[in-house]
Amino acid sequence: MKVAFSAFPKAFTGNVAVLVGADKQLLPSAQAIDRELGGAIKRAIDASRFTGAKGQSLTLLGQADIARLTLLGIGKSRELDARAAEALGGLVAGEANAAGQKAVTVVVDPLKGNALDPGQVAARIALGAQLRNYRFDKYKTKEKPEQKPTLERFTLVVAAPGEARRVHEKLEPAIDAVFFTRDLVSEPANVLFPVEFARRARELAKLGVKVEILGEAQMKKLGMNVLLAVGQGSVRDSQLLVMSWMKGPKTQKPVALIGKGVCFDTGGISIKPAGGMEDMKWDMGGAGAVTGAMRLIAARKARVNVVGVCALVENMPDGNAQRPGDVVKSLSGQTVEVINTDAEGRLILCDAMWYTQDRFKPQAMVELSTLTGAIIVALGHERAGLFSNDTALSNKLRAAGTAVGEKLWRMPLGPKYDKLIDSDIADMKNVGGGRDGGSITAAQFLQRFVQEGVAWAHIDIAGVAWSTKGNETTPKGATAFGVRLLDEWVAENFER
Ligand code: BES
Ligand code: MN
Ligand code: ZN
To answer: Which of 227, 283, 339 most suits a substitution to test ligand 1, by most atoms within 8 Å of the C-beta?
Structure first.
């Protein structure tokens, strides 16, 4: 889909969308079109439930030279923020494809009392449309043209198109990064296993990211036994992907991003039931988001020091797989009793986190993982669970999430929860407390691997990494949740 920004034309033709404020408030362009059409817009509104409320839309067909005229409700015009504008763009793109349209023009009039100027609004509408217009169809060999999305041209009409274009150019790297992550997360596990994930991440070297990949022999030498034990039942080699982007001030301690990359999670010997197990191909959504965020940070040439570390494994049952009851020594020196081989995410992450802290001495460490089914029970699919030892860090992450529409909800930690994972024969066990508070005990496990003085956050994205319904800016499937959140958090708090 091509995006273009252009100045107001003499007359509108084709498929046109205009914004309408709350209480049927027509903006200047809509008023002009309405006059041209002899009051058709007002009559259509009066004959419908459309009031201009946020999220509403109403389409008029065959009005003079306008094939389809879509009224887009924005609510109070001063309340249309960047995120709402993205949603609006996504809505238009979704409806245009559903209606088989090839081209659509959105008219962006100035909005009274709005903090954004029309150029920014137009750029955000375009971004939303582009984010919505993703499709993972590489394995479909028999699709007829009429089954494919039709939208080819998305035009924004705005008084200062040059300004809108400049804003949009700054936003564009996010689209590429989000699509990169959605591709990774969508791939089936026979295609995307740890070595293949690492190979695709090597592409980031072109952007100036230093990419290192540690194999099993190197991890063994270092003592990353807990991570390796998860992968030992798989014929696929485990990998540790280390990406660094050190383009900030020499004296700035880096920020660390950590991702869970279980390319497939069968549960191991504590095997999962068959129903829905195919979902576990996206148990690498955390690693996917971290890799996408590194790509975006590098594409923006951000003046900041960031490292991204992903633990990549496959969790399989096998004659060589780890058993429930096994005790394994982690890189930190602490020992772990593996009660349930399906609680594997925390196992690979504990060694990846320790490695990262030992080597990079980060000032802050944010880890993303599809860690627990319990977080879906708690929060559903609207918000990811946030756990942290630092309230200032939590607040900054929540603000970044709200800004990009990837919302977080802070969850508790505490010594009483921590005690639940004490083991009788080792320093800790990998599950405790039964199913109760399952996301919290998982986070407590991770916290035992946070070093003194490191601001740490764990974001459980099990409920948001994949969407079965989709939303305005995300078609159903992989969401790439976390890519924009991490980038926004880095941009707002660490760039010089
Ligand atoms: N990858 C799963 C968590 C998950 C579940 C992600 C559903 C996305 C959707 C994780 O490895 C897992 O199996 N967790 C167990 C932990 C339990 C054994 C303590 C779970 O949530 O059931
Ligand atoms: Mn599991
Ligand atoms: Zn898992």
So the answer is: 283
In a domain, 167, yes or no: no
Tens digit of pLDDT for each residue in 331-385?
999 999 999 999 999 999 999 999 999 999 999 999 999 999 999 999 999 999 9
Q: pLDDT value at position 322? A: 98
Q: Residues with beta carbon inside 6 Å of ligand 1?
A: 265, 279, 283, 340, 342-345, 370, 372-374, 431, 438, 462
| Annotation says 247 is catalytic | no
- Contacts of residue 288, defined as CB under 8 A and 6 or more positions apart, other chains included, come to 181, 184, 185, 259, 261, 465, 478, 480
d(CA 496, CA 489): 13
Q: Domain of 77?
A: 2-160
| Pair 258, 153 in one domain | no
Per-residue pLDDT tens over the stretch 149-192? 899 999 999 999 999 999 999 999 999 999 999 999 999 999 99
Q: Are 438 and 372 in contact (CB under 8 A)?
A: yes
Q: Is residue 169 part of a domain?
A: no
Q: Give the integer Cα–Cα distance in Å for 171 and 177.
A: 11
Instruction: Establish if 171 belongs to a structural domain.
Output: no
Strand partners, 329: 335
202 and 154, same domain (yes or no): no
Nearest CA to ligand 1 atom 22: 373
Claim to verify: residue 219 and residue 366 sit in the same structural domain:
yes
Nearest ligand to the CA atom of 267:
2
Residues 362 and 427 in one domain: yes
Catalytic, 419? Answer no
Distance CA 268, CA 280 (A): 12
Could you tell me if 371 and 488 lie in one domain? yes
Q: Determine which one of 236, 247, 253, 272 is catalytic.
A: 272
Q: Which of 68, 300, 346, 396 is catalytic?
A: 346
| Pocket residue to mutate for ligand 1, from 260, 314, 372, 481, most atoms within 8 A of Cβ | 372
Q: What is the pLDDT of residues 261-313, one digit of tens each?
A: 999 999 999 999 999 999 999 999 999 999 999 999 999 999 999 999 999 99
For residue 393, give both structure tokens. Answer: 């860090």
